[in-house]
Write a structure and sequence with these properties.
heterodimer; A: TIM Barrel; 2 domains; eight-stranded mixed beta sheet; three-stranded antiparallel beta sheet; 16 helices; B: 119 residues; mainly alpha; flat
């Protein structure tokens, strides 16, 4: 006697969205985006929030004009991509854990933990700092920096190009070292037939024409940490005396943007209490100063009522401004022009590829931080924090600690993320932010879940609109970002 | 794919994979890596021991087809583990692998979707 299985279907893990009157779905188990036709729409409507037996579903489809073969084919197609699933679910495989010998792609060299500014919200020195720099070197030595270059080349497998980011403290307080490292690394990489690329983050106070020319000549990508026009910048980005930094950096920024011709110059804005006028900040940085790209992020905080923390209302206002800038981004894109709002550009890049992250970022994976003393950490935000050391540049990566960090940070280990459709891009959010907020790098950043979902949905709509009206732009954008 | 239009790289990859499955199910498989039914062209595919024998290709009529059989052979996939009369190595669907065949609603078409199960 033989028994045939009879399947009941329900919706798979999908996030539906509309754009320009067309319908789309984001397939959560893969990060794939599909445009839907009417027949698919019909199946999803038939299933609603419930389930339906295979035969009933097919019969219903035949009732609306499909042939039996078409109806079976449609159900099969949707089942195989997991847009619908049977009650006997084989859970879709989560994002695979990268192999233990995952080759490094980038190092963040913390060339000094000293800074000439004393920004009141700084995670290295502020109320929520986790760094323990006491008794450790304040400046990285040439030996440590060169050993880091050797370590990067030795640990990066067969990658043709690897990357060094210079970070601080204030990076340019150790420019001498930076210049030496670039020379050394170019030679070391060149000897192996490989390439080294560079970027740095700076507060711009110490930029000189000589430094700018060096950065341009060596194609060092520059990100400037700044918060906007004078009164916003000077609220918290201050010298130890309390004096604001805007007047010092403005002429230096104009020189940087005018003279640095080889790489985009980016501004990175930290949003804090009272510094939330995203639109005004963007206009100033993009239009008045001429930055190529401007990105925004809310300040990291433990959630305590700190002077600089953002509350829920402020975040709502920020999202409204983000949406207005997103509209503008789309208008530009529909005309075939690039817009400088990084927060959209970054998400669109990830949507083009269909990123499905096992971890929120490359920290501890393809990227490591190196402290001035040579301690390795998951990223620059954990520099000098004894609790998060992952080895030392002289003794190498501590694989046991690294694995523990990565196991914790894997999206599959975050319970709350399992029911969230935005997890392919978010994967629980920043490890450092989670540690500051919840005391655990593996905790999902629950305080911004709604925010992330709204933002991802907005970017999906932009993506959908472009795929309908200007797909060539997406292709060009992908080529420009090196995604194709 | 007829109904879903892929609009990002990941979706295009899924679409290409599905096209390959479709093509293979039409008997035009060219990949040596692919799973082969015994009667699938180019013939013959000789089974090397019983663990490699796979009933839907094994049970054929005198002409090498399935039309002359008294029952559709594909049902044997389920007979192997639902009613247990066919002594072929299939996953333990009672204890460990209840979902083994859940992506294989229509065995004639979907047998390639049967999961591998590692005890």
């Amino acid at each position: 006697m033989s028994t045939l299985l009879s399947h009941r279907y329900r919706r798979g893990e999908i996030h539906e969205f509309q754009a320009s009157g067309a319908e789309f779905m984001y397939l959560v188990t893969a990060g794939a985006i599909f445009a839907l036709d009417d027949a698919t729409r019909h199946v999803l409507d038939l299933l609603g929030d419930g389930d339906m037996a295979h035969d009933d579903l097919v019969t219903a489809l035949i009732g609306t004009g499909h042939s039996a073969v078409d109806a079976e084919g449609l159900v099969r197609e949707l089942r195989i991509v997991r847009a619908i699933q049977s009650e006997q679910v084989i859970p879709a495989p989560g994002p695979t854990t990268p192999p233990a010998d995952y080759p490094l792609q980038a190092l963040v060299l913390n060339v000094t933990n000293q800074c000439n500014l004393a920004c009141t919200y700084c995670y290295e020195f502020g109320a929520d700092k986790i760094a323990t720099p006491e008794g450790k070197p304040k400046y990285m030595t040439v030996e440590t920096a060169r050993a880091s270059v050797d370590f990067l080349l030795a640990s990066s497998g067969t990658r043709e190009a690897v990357h060094i980011t210079f970070f601080g403290g204030e990076t340019l307080m150790n420019f001498k070292l930076l210049r030496d490292v670039v020379g050394y690394a170019n030679e070391a990489a060149g000897a192996q037939g490989r390439r080294m690329t560079y970027s740095l983050t700076t507060n711009a106070t110490l930029l000189t024409d000589e430094i700018i020319d060096f950065l341009s000549d060596n194609a060092v990508g520059v990100t400037v940490s700044m918060d906007g026009p004078a009164e916003l910048q000077d609220k918290r980005r201050v010298y130890k005396s309390g004096k604001g930094s805007y007047a010092i950096i403005e002429p230096r920024l104009r020189a940087l943007i005018a003279r640095h011709r080889t790489r985009a110059v980016t501004a990175r804005v930290t949003l804090t209490n009272g510094v939330t006028d995203v639109m005004r900040i963007y206009r100033h940085l993009k239009d008045d100063l001429g930055f190529h790209e401007v990105g925004f992020a809310p300040v990291t905080s433990s959630g305590e009522e700190l002077e600089y923390s953002l509350d829920g209302d402020a975040m709502t206002g920020v999202l409204a401004d983000f949406n207005a800038l997103a509209d503008e981004w789309l208008e530009y894109a529909l005309r075939g022009q690039m817009h400088g709002f990084t927060n959209v550009s970054e998400t669109i890049s990830e949507l083009i590829s269909g990123t499905n992250k096992s971890h929120p970022c490359g920290a501890g994976l393809g990227l490591l931080g190196v402290s001035p003393s040579g301690d390795l950490s998951p990223c620059h935000r954990f520099t000098d924090a004894d609790t998060h050391t992952l080895g030392h540049i002289d003794t190498g990566l501590d694989q046991v600690k690294r694995e523990a960090f990565l196991d914790k940070g894997h999206v599959a280990a975050k319970y709350e993320c399992q029911s969230c459709w935005a997890r392919p891009l978010c994967a629980g959010g920043c490890h450092h932010e989670a540690f500051v907020r919840y005391g655990d790098t593996g905790h999902a950043n629950l305080h911004y879940c709604d925010w992330i979902r709204q933002w991802t949905d907005r970017c999906l709509q932009i993506y959908g609109t472009l795929s309908e009206h200007n797909p060539e732009f997406l292709e060009r954008f992908a080529a420009r970002k090196g995604l194709s | 794919m007829k109904h879903l239009k892929p609009i990002n790289s990941k979706a295009r990859k899924i679409s290409a994979d599905m096209a390959a499955i479709e093509q293979a199910s039409l008997g035009e498989a060219s990949s040596e890596e692919d799973v082969m039914a015994l009667q699938q062209a180019p013939r013959p595919h000789v089974p090397m021991g019983c663990t490699l024998s796979f009933s839907p290709g094994w049970e054929v009529d005198a002409t090498g087809g399935t039309a002359g059989l008294c029952q559709p052979v594909e049902r044997d996939i389920y007979d192997c583990y639902v009613t247990c009369f066919w002594p072929v190595q299939v996953p333990d669907h009672v204890n460990y692998s209840p979902d083994w065949a859940s992506n294989c609603a229509a065995a004639t078409k979907d047998w390639r979707n049967l999961d591998l199960v590692f005890p």
